[in-house]
From TrEMBL:
Protein name in UniProt: Cystathionine gamma-synthase
Modified residues (N6-(pyridoxal phosphate)lysine): K205
Domain of life of the native organism: Bacteria
Tagged with keyword Transferase: yes
């Protein structure tokens, strides 16, 4: 089945897109191509367009076809990490003097890349609460950005932005609208169908899904921007290696069922936390009290696996994060195993003291696919120990 069977359902595409059985052997799983170079039938006589591993690799092509199919994109590109993909996109789409209007709780590394790497090259940055479209409209009216960048649900506060509304505002100002879809994954949310121009992924998280591969992907609604970015992927070379691409493809095949379990487990954990008197606030879009709940219910087909909570003060939050047993204290998210993270000193340490700083009372949970009773029992014992 090729990516042309776009009418197939999500899970069929996840399993089959880019995974045509090998023509010579019939192998149902296409081989992992490690070769860095390809035999030519006479000078320039390429068999299938492959020449050198940086410009193209069949295992990487398979992953790119799979991601494009799942995001409803014209094309996808795979990178060595999420940030490598972001860097290629930003440098392909922007020139010095351009401005990026960005959400106020994006991934810390995205902010760092823009503020500290691309800033000195002349890209400017403004930050706004993207979940407040009036604030976005006011910021755009003040000065039209070249690019609008949002994460929804956001990290770690789980704010929800109306992607279709944001795309309308951005496009009216001539901006490229980028959605980091790492938290929802295409199993729960398809930004291109809602009007986004580019979808960004840290494939390290839910796409890979098993905490054993670092990778990134970009999916494009527009072939020209895809082409420009592909040139940078080739010219600068931050491609995913074949084994990484293979692992990511393998992970994506179970994305749909994993996201269902992540979502139902996270819902149970969030509901438990919301009823606990030691917890000040629970941030989870699946809770009716969450300010983005109704929007998330229409824009997403599930609420995802990330739950954040606020405790009474920073010291209590740190103690909680160090008291879980099944939730492992570690950075990252999106794997089958549950993780607990203290953003202020871990994932978001690089934005401490900036306009993106995360309150020191916040703990973020990446709720895995383990038995839900064990997960609830674990947060219960951690809260009891405070
Ligand atoms: C992890 C992450 C990134 C960065 O991806 P890497 O694979 O670590 O480079 C970008 N956006 C979000 C939302 C992330 O969680």
């Amino acid at each position: 089945m090729s990516t042309h069977d776009a009418a197939r359902g999500f899970d069929s595409l996840a399993v089959h897109a880019g995974q045509t059985p090998d023509e010579t052997t019939g192998a149902v799983i296409p081989p992992l191509h490690v070769s860095t170079t390809y035999a030519q039938d006479g000078i320039g006589g390429l068999r299938g367009g492959y020449e050198y591993g940086r410009s193209g690799n069949p295992t990487r092509t398979a992953l790119e076809s799979q991601v494009a199919a799942l995001e409803g994109a014209v094309r996808a590109l795979s990178f060595a990490s999420g940030l490598a993909g972001e860097d290629a996109l930003l440098r392909a789409a922007l020139v010095p003097g351009d401005e990026v209007l960005m959400g106020n709780d994006v991934y810390g590394g995205t902010y760092r890349l823009l503020a500290r790497v691309l800033g000195p090259w002349g890209i400017t940055l403004r930050v706004v609460d993207m979940s407040d479209l009036d604030a976005v409209a006011a910021a755009i009216e003040q000065r039209a950005p070249r690019m609008v960048w949002v994460e929804t649900p956001s990290n770690p506060m789980l704010r929800i932005t109306d992607i279709a509304g944001l795309a309308r505002l951005g496009h009216a100002a001539g901006a490229i609208v980028v959605v980091d879809n790492t938290f929802a994954s295409p199993a729960l949310q398809r930004p291109i169908a809602l009007g986004a121009d580019v979808v960004v992924h840290s494939a390290t998280k839910y796409l890979g899904g098993h905490s054993d591969v670092v990778g990134g992907a970009l999916a494009f609604a527009d072939a020209d921007l895809a082409e420009k970015t592909q040139f940078l992927q080739f010219a600068a070379g931050a491609v995913s290696g074949p084994f990484d691409a293979y692992l990511t493809t393998r992970g994506i095949k179970t994305l749909g069922i994993r996201m269902q379990r992540h979502s139902s487990n996270a819902q149970a954990v969030a509901e438990y936390l919301a009823g606990h008197d030691r917890v000040a606030t629970v941030y989870y879009p699946g809770l009716p009290a969450h300010p983005g709940h109704e929007l998330a219910a229409t824009q997403m087909s599930g609420f995802g696996g990330i739950v954040s909570l606020a405790l009474a003060d920073g010291a209590t939050a740190r103690r909680f994060a160090e008291s879980t047993r099944l939730f492992t204290l570690a950075e990252s998210l999106g794997g089958v195993e549950s993780l607990v993270n203290y953003p202020d000193a871990m994932t978001h340490a690089s934005v401490r003291g900036t306009e993106l700083a995360v309150p020191d009372t916040i703990v973020r949970l990446s709720v895995g696919i383990e038995s839900v009773d064990d997960l609830v029992a674990d947060v219960d014992q951690a809260l009891a120990s405070l």
